[in-house]
Amino acid sequence: MGFKTYSAPVLLAVTLAFQPVLAAKSTNAPEQSAAEQAADRSPRVPTFEIKGDLAGRLDVFTTQYEDTFAEVGSQLAMGYLELVKANPGVDPWLPGEGTTITLPRQYIIPDARREGIVINLAEYRLYYFAEDGVQVYPVGVGTEENPSPLADAKVTMPLESPAWYPPASIRAEYEASGDFLPRMIPPGPDNPLGTHALMLSEKGYLIHGTNKLFGVGMAVSHGCFRMYNEDISRFVYQVSKGTPVQVVNKPVKMGISGGEVWLEVHRPDEDYSQKDRDRLWREVAREVEAFRQKHPGVEVQRKAIELAVDQADGIPTMIGEQVSQVASDKTAKDKQRSASEEPEQKLYF
Question: What residues contact 60, with CB distance under 8 A and at least 6 apart?
Fold first, then answer.
C-alpha cells in the first residue's frame, strides 16, 4: 500500500498543509511496541455479515472487581458511552465483581453509501465496509464547540508514528489555561495523534490514534476522529489511499431485516435531558413517517417506538414488520389507482 515511516521534516510539510485540530494532554497510557503492532494486523473487531439493514449481534461480558467501562471498552474495542447507555443502572466506574454487562454490537447500517468508511457522529462509531461484511469501531468526535464536519471525503495518506504540529489556536488555548504547548510534539507516548493516522481530503482532519485511554466513543476532540491505538495501528493497513470517507449525523436509524422493522435511537450523553428527549421524539416521528412512505407495506407498533425513544440506548429495537398486501378482493380498478390517491398514513406522537 506504499506505507512509509515519515521523518519530522516531511511530516512538518504535510501537517502544515493539513493541520489536525485535535488537542489532548498527555497521559501515561501504555503504548504497544513496533514489534507488537507489526506482529498482528488483523482487525480487533468482528466482521459482521450485513442482513438487509442489520448487522452484528448483542453479546455479554462479565466484569472483574477492578474493571471500569473505560477499561473494558479499551480491551474490547468499544466506546465508553455506548457501554453506559446499554447498561442502565450499572456504575460505569465500579460495576463490581461478576456483573454481566451488555455489549451493544448489533447495528442498523446508517443511511449512507455502503462503501469505504462511514462515520456516524451521533453514535460515535465508524463503519468500515469490507468485502465480506462490515466492521464497527468506536471513535471520539468533535465537541459542540469544535464539531466534526459533515463530509464526503477520501483517505489521502496513511501515517506511521506521526509528529504533531499544533495549530496556533490550540497553542493559544493551552497558554490561556497556563500550560505550555510546543510547536512540535514528536512521536511517542506524549503525542496526541497516537501511533498511526489516516489523513483525509477534508483539510485539517485526521482519523488517528490517541495517548489517552478515556475519550474514545465520546465527543472530546477539536474535530478529528480518535481511535484506540490498538485499532488504528491495524486499521491503517486495511485502508487504501482513495478510500471514501462519509461523515453523517444520524441519531435515529431505521431498517428492515428479514421482514422485521428495526429502530435505533441514540441520545448524545450519559444523562437524558428533556430537551434531548423532545428533539429525538420529533426526529423519530419524521423518520417513521418517511420510512412508511418509502415502504407502504410496513406496520409499526406505537408502544415499541415509545420504548425505543424512552431508552435511547443505541440498541436496535424491533418495532414492526413488513406485511404482504392481500389483493384477492381488489378490483382491477383498485389496483390501477395511483399512489397519490391512496389514503395518507401518518404516525402521530
Answer: 100, 101, 102, 103
Decide: 114 and 208 in contact? Cβ < 8 Å. Answer: no
Question: Looking at residue 325, what DSSP letter applies?
Answer: P
Is 200 exposed, middle or buried, given 0-12, 13-18 or 19+ CB atoms closer than 10 A? buried
pLDDT tens-digit map of 286-330 = 999 999 999 999 999 999 999 999 999 999 999 999 986 543 344
Which segments of the chain have a pLDDT < 50? Answer: 2-32, 34, 37, 326-333, 335, 338-349
Cα–Cα distance between 222 and 220 in angstroms, integer? 7
β-bridge mates for residue 153, sequence order: 245
Under 8 Å between Cβ of 49 and 114: no
Q: What is the pTM of this model?
A: 0.81
- Residue 320: closest CA among 252, 264, 258, 261: 261
Residues 6+ apart with CB under 8 A from 55: 48, 49, 106, 107, 109, 133, 134, 136
Amino acid at 159: L
Q: Which of 159, 81, 82, 150 is nearest to 118 (CA)?
A: 150
Q: Which of 212, 296, 228, 309 is nearest to 266 (CA)?
A: 309
Cα separation, 70 vs 73, in Å, equals: 5
Task: Evaluate the CA torsion angle 267, 268, 274, 278 in order and state its sign.
Answer: negative
Helix ranges, the chain (H): 8-17, 34-39, 69-76, 80-86, 168-176, 229-235, 274-294, 302-311, 332-335
What does 161-204 look like in DSSP terms, one character per residue? S--B---HHHHHHHHHTT----S-B-SSTT-TT-SEEEEESSTT
User: Known catalytic residues?
Assistant: 208, 224
CA distance 131 to 317: 27
Q: How far apart are CA 19 and CA 223, in angstroms?
A: 11
227 in Cβ contact with 192 (< 8 Å): no
- Rounded Cα distance between 194 and 209, Å, is 4
